[in-house]
Design brief:
- By secondary structure, the chain is an alpha+beta fold.
- The chain has a single domain, classed as START domain (Alpha-D-Glucose-1,6-Bisphosphate, Chain A, domain 4, 2-Layer Sandwich).
- It is built from four helices and eight strands.
- A hairpin with a 3-residue loop joins strand 5 and strand 6.
- Helix 1 crosses helix 2.
- The chain is globular, with a radius of gyration of 15 Å.
- The two termini are 18 Å apart.
Length: 164
């Protein structure tokens, strides 16, 4: 594989979507594990200097991941990811929302639907991520919050974890 890994980040304001395609220099099984095991997610999901801290995770259809993004001063923003579909080692879909520490959606920030697909690409893996918001206002709120920059940093953390 060449040294230039694919990374595309496209915002479609007509469909209220963000489409991310990101290649990793690791086999699909390893990349899948990093996206589906809380002990690995906690190591890469948050952009530094923040960190992710799992409160509970049940990676099954109907299960969920409740975690906090923990800031450098100890501040916490909780999020909940509900697993809607899982095709082992290939794809999973979720809803994702900002919640309180008990997992209750406070409806203060936009929720999203995610579909993550994992594709074997030579010696690596291409992860195709489609994120859909209910409204253009929701999409723009997330963009203004720095989602592109934060998610890009998190994916860079994943590169570092996969290299270990």
């Amino acid at each position: 594989m060449n040294n230039q890994l694919q990374f595309d980040f496209d915002v479609n304001k007509e469909n209220n979507t963000i489409h991310v395609r990101r290649e990793f220099n690791a086999p699909p099984q390893k990349v899948w594990a990093a996206w589906t095991k809380s002990e690995l997610l906690d190591q890469w999901w948050a952009p530094k200097p923040w960190r992710a801290e799992t409160k509970s995770m049940d990676f099954t259809v109907g299960g969920y991941w409740l975690y906090a993004m923990v800031g450098p001063k100890g501040e916490k923003q909780f999020c909940k990811v509900d697993f809607l579909t899982i095709e082992q080692q290939k794809s999973f879909s979720t809803t994702s929302a900002f919640v309180d520490e008990n997992g209750v959606d406070q409806k203060t920030l936009p929720a999203a639907e995610w579909k993550n697909t994992f594709n074997n690409k030579g010696n690596g893996t291409l992860v195709d991520i489609m994120i859909k918001y209910d409204t253009l206002e929701d999409l723009e709120t997330i963009i203004k919050m720095g989602f592109k920059e934060g998610f890009t940093m998190g994916l860079g953390n994943l590169d570092e974890l996969l290299a270990l």
